[in-house]
Amino acid sequence: MDAQKIAQLRAAPVAPARHLIDGTQCAASDGAVMDVISPLDGQILTTMARGTQADALAAVTAARRAFDDGRWSGMTPAARKKILLKWAGLIEAEALEIAVLGVRENGTEIGMAFKAEPMSAAATLRYYAEAIDKLHGEIASTGDDTLGLVHREPVGVVGAIVPWNFPLMIGAWKLGPALAAGCTVVLKPAETASLTLLRIAELALEAGLPPGVLNVVTGEGPVVGAAIAESMDVDALVFTGSGTTGRRLMEASARSNLKRVYLELGGKSPNIVFADAPDLDEAAKVSAHGIFRNSGQVCIAGSRLLVERSIHDAFVSKLAAVAEAMTLGDPLDPATMAGAVNSEHQLEQILSAVDDARAAGRTIVTGGTRILPETGGYFMAPTIVTGVQRDDALARNEVFGPVLAVIPFDTEEEAITIANGTDYGLAAAVWTSNLSRAHRMVRRIRAGIVHVNTYGGSDLTVPLGGVKQSGNGHDKSLHAFDKYLDLKTAWIKL
Length: 494
What we know:
The protein has helices at residues 3-11, 53-68, 77-93, 95-106, 110-131, 167-180, 195-207, 221-230, 243-255, 280-292, 312-325, 344-359, 393-396, 412-419, 435-444, and strands spanning 19-21, 24-26, 33-37, 44-49, 138-139, 146-154, 157-161, 184-188, 214-216, 236-240, 260-264, 270-273, 304-308, 363-366, 370-371, 379-380, 383-386, 403-409, 427-431, 449-452, 485-493. The chain has 494 residues and is an alpha/beta fold. The chain has 2 domains: 3-265 and 471-491, 3-Layer(aba) Sandwich (Aldehyde Dehydrogenase, Chain A, domain 1); 270-459, 3-Layer(aba) Sandwich (Aldehyde Dehydrogenase, Chain A, domain 2), CATH 3.40.309.10.
């Protein structure tokens, strides 16, 4: 990675950000702006439009008009495919610039950000672009005097609300299948991670996406997000974020037009290590990265370590050694392995959770403190907490930071009970050399994805979604199209 180019991009001024509505950049209707604070140094990076309800509704109107007149849904699949592929190429060509901009805004280490943000977004758009002309309807089995056809049609206007931890990756998981299906979109980025999504939306226009097909409105969730959720002209709502906000979106749907709502609400994912794991050193390394990369701000982070009691102390020692050897600090240094926490508010919440565990008598093996205060940025040491009880807040509540709760177990049955003992069900992992045990655990753990002898890394070929209070619906894979396509039956008498 070109360190000199990164240094130049770090120093470059960032222009004030504006909405993108109906193909035009515009300020908030009342002229209001909000500061964009960089987590690298706590300083103002730029400003962006503080959206109003009127701004959100203007974007919905543009998306509704663009859908109804068929400027996008009426294109041939081949034409839509060509535009999405060009868009992916433009993002890839500007990937380093986009990645550095994103790091300056949300603090993810550049090595991860480059791959997981612009490069991932480009790959996702290509995946769904290639699928466009391979989606077919069905012919039903009927008698000779009847023809039954099943058409797949775009649902209409999609409202997409995405989080700050991986705005491009998660944003592309929504935009790729929605646009490929022929829908139009109103996108609301997180308040602390809007700049890169605005940039790729500009590139979408350059690639030939018609005005009004993709609209981006920045601002606060209770204003912009609420207006999108309550609009009678939004047909589907997709969201990744907190359970509290997810519930509000479902309530908004009920108050308005009963729009379908798909939610990915995070988790408290169990990472289960048995004594017969094939390589305990590898398990420790991967487990550490599974909770501490991006400062633990990952939906599927393995934030609960369930470790067989016979190896508990030895494994925790291995894990602590990995954590303490990680290079922390400047997210724009390619050698950095864990960058900044997204915001000061988020950092305070994480530290509070650790303080509560300490007050409850739990042991902080390593970390537990803010680091690098001289930078003015929001940095925290990877933290391992032992002695955690299965009913502790640290074992049940999503912290969304670099904090690992360690819980011992004695039997496979006990491990399953602990693993399923939260309100969440997004991800899990099992480390074992016993193939039969691995299959049993996969079947019995209630989670949308269960890793075996690894953590993370699944690609676009498989779906990601949760059960219980981790949400519903799926991102990634061809199953994602289910959220954006309606089935229509034609029953024809011959």
